Amino acid sequence: TLSGILNPKVVQEHEVDGDMGQAWLTDHSAGAGPYVLEEWDRKIRVVLKANENYWGEAPKIKTIIIQDIPESTDQLLRLKKGDIDIAFDLTAEQANSLKDSPDVSVVTTPGQSDEYVGMNAGWGPFKDVRVRQAVKYAIDYDAIINKVMSGFAINNQQFLPIGYFGYVENNPYYQDIEKAKVLMAEAGYADGFDVELVTNTTERRRTEAVVVQENLAKIGIRAEINLMQASQMYAKFRQQGLQMIIAGWGVDYPDADALANPFANHRVKQLAWRCVWYDDYAADLVEAAGKEINEDRRFQMYQDLTNYWHIYGPFAMMYQPIQFWGVSNKVKNYDKAAEGYSVHFDLTEVYK
pTM higher than 0.85, yes or no? Predict the structure, then answer.
């Protein structure tokens, strides 16, 4: 849920039938931020103007025009020609093609999300922690990062993004097929098993699913890929109805608690619950860390939780994405503006 500070007098002047001005706010702004909405021509462009009444330092850029250009190829061409200053939705291949450009730079920042393989710990073979560990050892993380993501991802196998409180680099898994086979045999699945692997229909997820399918086949797990519309997939996932899933999770607020709860606390009925991982030790540790006010003790709690989660959790964390943009060299300080995207994005930092 997004929220913002509004001027109640302005909003209430446009109230209709008790809607608190909600209909009017669809196309107007009444906020206290550095910009106000001047124009919104749907599927064409949005125009933001500097707020003359802004309480802070006035933004250096007085007008921001956000154009709706659906095709990434069109964005790339216009960026190269100088018709636009920033391209938001380039593909990884397109971004890599700009790395030697004299006029355009590729600006990157660690993304505020995780990409994972989730296993239903209440279903068949995945009830055994050794099978879950075997899956983690079967995955070729480097191939996914370098080939699927074209390098725009970070090998981060924990739920805490880089830079967050409690984060310490901790990547215990790598592709080790022989070790995975031993774990499968110890669990009684030397001959493997069949499983349905669900993901959505985006190109990236489809490609990830094929790589994971090929990896799992090497240890005898026969994964049948089922592509679903995201709405259908998540509806079923929220009902604990999937055996295996490839998906992502975005950060709600920039604190370790925002990731520990969904990934390790089944009581909040988010990801751990959807994967039927009812681990009270992990849930207790999440709740205690969230309440702890001593910074050193809290930090150690997240270390203990991460180490425990790596061993017993039902997730194979594939990577932390890297957000990237094509940016004209005429634009200055965009890296500062985008630092922390998508939790924080401050265009007042930008100038030309």
Answer: yes
